[in-house]
Design brief:
2 domains; TIM Barrel; alpha/beta; single chain; globular; two-stranded antiparallel ribbon; eight-stranded parallel beta barrel; 12 helices
Length: about 350
C-alpha cells in the first residue's frame, strides 16, 4: 500500500506527497502551482519567474476561516433572525440589559468642558433619579476630555471610554496614535476605541495594520481596546469578516461596526458577519471577544435588532457589558422613556 506523508512546502502550506506536482522536491515552493505565472492577477510575465506569491502569517490566519461569503445569503439570515426573534426579545428585562450595555457617547466638534461636564453630572444623578434602572456601561468622549470625565464621574461601574488613534479616519502616524492613546490612558480612560486603518486593509497591507493594532493593545494592557472596522467602507461581507479576524488576531478585546462619521453606520448584516467571526475565533482560540454596534442606532427597535443577532449567533454568555455594547447618544433617552412609559429626556 502506498504510504502518504504530510509535509510543509516552502510556501507554508501543508501537503500530502501525492498532492505535490510531479518533480517537486519535498520543500518546493508551490506558491505558483496554480498560476505558474499565468495568473492575470499576479502580473508576472515570462521573464519574471522569480516573482512568487508568498503567503504571510496573516494570510495563514485568515485561511483558517471561511471568508468567502455571499452577501445575499447574509441578508437572508439576518431577515430570518429579525422576523423570528424581535417580538420575543421586546421585553422590559431586555431593555434594561440594553441600557446596561450602552456606551453613552458625545463626539461632536462643538463639545467643550462645560457640555461634557453637564453630561457627566446627568450620569451621576441618574442613580438617584431612577434607582431601579441600571447605569450605562460607559461614557465615551474625545480623549481631550478623559481627565475631566475621570475626575467628575461618580456613578459606580461606569467606564471612562475615549476614542483615539486619529479618530475617525485613522489617517495619521502610528507614533501619533500611540501618543494620543497613552495620553488618554494617563488622563484616566479605562477603555479605548480606535479605528482600524481601512486604507491599509483595502490595500492588503495586513502587516502594518496588525502591527499597529498589536502595539496599541500592548499599550492598553488590561484596559479594553475596541477596534472599529468601519464596515460601511469595506464593500462586502467577506471583507468585513477578514477585517474582524485580523483585528481579533491583533489583540482587539472588542470589534465595533462603525464610527458614525462619513456616513458609515452600523448595519444588521455587518453585525451578523462580525458575530459569526467572533464565534469562530472563540471556537479556535478559546478567547471571547466582545461586539459593539455603533453609528446611526437611535431607536429601541434598532437596539433590539442587534441584541437579537448577538443572542442568536453568540448566545446569552455575550449579552453582558463585558462583551456587548451599543454606542449611541439619543438611544439612552429612548430606552429610559420606553421603560418608564413617559418622556423624560434625562440625558
Amino acid at each position: 500500500m502506498k504510504q502518504i506523508h504530510e509535509h510543509e512546502c516552502g510556501c507554508g502550506h501543508a501537503h500530502e506527497d501525492d498532492e505535490c506536482r510531479p518533480g517537486h522536491a519535498r520543500n518546493h515552493d508551490c506558491s505558483h502551482d496554480d498560476c505558474e505565472c499565468n495568473d492575470p492577477a499576479c502580473g508576472c510575465d515570462d521573464d519574471d519567474k522569480e516573482h512568487l506569491h508568498q503567503p504571510s502569517k496573516y494570510d495563514a490566519a485568515l485561511a483558517r476561516y471561511d471568508t468567502r461569503l455571499d452577501d445575499a445569503e447574509v441578508t437572508k439570515a439576518v431577515d430570518a433572525i429579525i422576523e423570528a426573534r424581535i417580538a420575543a426579545n421586546n421585553t422590559k428585562e431586555v431593555k434594561e440589559r440594553l441600557l446596561s450595555c450602552l456606551d453613552l457617547t458625545s463626539l461632536h466638534a462643538t463639545d467643550n468642558d462645560e457640555s461634557i461636564l453637564r453630561l457627566v453630572e446627568r450620569v451621576n444623578a441618574f442613580d438617584n433619579a431612577h434607582p431601579d434602572l441600571p447605569h450605562v456601561a460607559a461614557l465615551c468622549t474625545y480623549p481631550l476630555f478623559s481627565g475631566l470625565v475621570s475626575q467628575s464621574l461618580e456613578a459606580d461601574r461606569v467606564e471612562v471610554a475615549a476614542v483615539s488613534g486619529g479618530f475617525p479616519s485613522s489617517q495619521t502616524f502610528t507614533e501619533v496614535k500611540v501618543a494620543e492613546t497613552a495620553m488618554a490612558l494617563h488622563e484616566g480612560a479605562t477603555e479605548i476605541d480606535v479605528v482600524m486603518p481601512v486604507g491599509r486593509f483595502l490595500d492588503g497591507n495586513y502587516e502594518d495594520l496588525c502591527d499597529e493594532l498589536d502595539e496599541l493593545k500592548e499599550l492598553c494592557g488590561d484596559k479594553l481596546l475596541k477596534v472599529i472596522l468601519e464596515t460601511g467602507l469595506l464593500g462586502s461581507a467577506s471583507n468585513v469578516k477578514r477585517a474582524a479576524i485580523l483585528s481579533m488576531y491583533s489583540g482587539a478585546d472588542f470589534i465595533k461596526t462603525s464610527t458614525g462619521k462619513e456616513g458609515s453606520v452600523a448595519t444588521p448584516e455587518a453585525a451578523y458577519v462580525m458575530c459569526q467571526a467572533i464565534r469562530e475565533y472563540h471556537e479556535q482560540t478559546g478567547r471571547m471577544v466582545g461586539f459593539k454596534a455603533a453609528g446611526g442606532i437611535r431607536s429601541v427597535h434598532d437596539a433590539l435588532v442587534y441584541y437579537s443577532i448577538v443572542k442568536e449567533v453568540l448566545g446569552l454568555e455575550w449579552l453582558t457589558p463585558r462583551y456587548f455594547r451599543i454606542g449611541a447618544s439619543s438611544l439612552a433617552n429612548a430606552l429610559v422613556n420606553d421603560l418608564l412609559g413617559e418622556e423624560v429626556n434625562f440625558f
